[in-house]
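Batch manifest line 357
LIGAND: adenosine-5-diphosphoribose
JOB: complex structure
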Amino acid sequence: MRTQVAIIGAGPAGLLLSHLLAADGVESVVLETRSREYVAARIRAGLLESSTVDVLAGCGLDGRLREQGLEHRGIYLQWPEERHHLDFVDLVGRSVWVYGQTEVTRDLVAARDAAGQQFVYEISDTALHDLDGDCPYVTYVDIDGREQRLDVDAIAGCDGSFGPSRKAIPSSVGRTWERTYPFAWFGILADVAPSTDELIYAWHAEGFALHSMRSESVSRLYLQVSPDTDPATWSDDQIWEALARRLGHGQNGWELHPGPITDRSVLPMRSYVYEPMRYGQLFLAGDAAHIVPPTGAKGLNLAVADVALLAPALAAMINKGDRGAADSYSDRALRRVALHALLVVDDDHAAHTRRRL
Ligand code: APR
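JOB STATUS: finished
ARTIFACT:
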C-alpha cells in the first residue's frame, strides 16, 4: 500500500494528527496494535488545558466538549487548616476543562470515521524501515496474519512509551533523561458527585492528595503512596479516611462525601524525555518521546501540543517541499516538554536547557 503519512498508534496523539493532516489535505493510515474497542474504552487523563481546547476547537472537535465538559476557572491549593483558590482566569485569562480522554478519543474516532480515515487495528510485528532514506516504509502483520508493507513520505511515531518507533532510531543518535520518583499515586474512580467545584491539590504531612473529577457524578481522587503499594490491600474506608484527612474534611464546614469505588490503581511517577524527536523521515509525538507525571493531565496536553506543531510541519514538507518547520520540529516541541518534564530532572541539564531556551 502507499500513503503520505503512516501514523503508528491510535492514542490521542495519532488520532488528532490524522485529523489535522487531513485538514491540510495530507492522507494518512493509522496503524494500531490494539482493537478499536480497547482503544475506545481506555480510561486515562481528564483535564484539558486552554491551548488543547483551542486546538480541538480549531479543527471543529469542541462540540461535545463544550456541551458536556466542565469549565473551571482555577484550582484550590490546600494545606492543613488552609485552602487558597488560584483563579487562572483572573491571573492569566485562561480556564481549564474537565473532559475525559475517553471522550476526546470518542470525538476523534467519530470525526475520522466520518471522514473515511483508514485505520488498521490489531496489527502485530510493526517495524520501521529506511528512515533516513528517500523511501521510508512500515511493515506489519495484519489481523489475518498476512504480512503488509506501507510505503510513505513520512512516519509519525505516536505509539506511546513502549512502541517500536523510538527504538527504531539508532542508539548513537538519541539522548535520554529519566527520573523515577520515590512515590506513586493511588488513584480511584468513584460513583459519587465531586465534593468540590474545582480541583483540590493538597499538601499534608502524610503525603499529597488530589480531588479531581470526571463529571458531575464521577469523582477521581489520588493519594501519594509508596511505589510498592498494592491497591487491593487498602479497604474503601481506609482510602476515604486518608483522603478526608489530607483534603481538609471538616475544615470551615467543608465535607468530603465518599461513594462506591469503581476503579483503583497505583501509578508510578516518572519523567522521561528522549531527544531528538525526529530522525530522518520519522517524527515522534506524545508518549513515544516523553513521559511526565500525571499532574494536570500533562501527558495528554503535551501530546496535543506536539501534533499541533507536527501537522503543519509535515503538510509543508509533503505539499510544498518546504522542510523548515519539519527540521525545527524537534527543538520546538522539546522546548515545551522541557518546561514541564525537565524542571525536576537534574540541575545541570535544567541549566543546559535554560541556556538553550
Ligand atoms: N504498533 C501499533 N500501535 C502500537 C504499537 C505497535 N507496535 N505499540 C503501541 N501502539 C499503540 C498503543 O496501543 C496505543 O494505542 O500506540 C498507542 C499510543 O497511545 P498512547 O499511549 O495513548 O500515547 P499518546 O497518543 O502519545 O498519548 C499520550 O495520553 O494516554 C494519555 O496519559 C496518556 O500521556 C499519555 C497521553
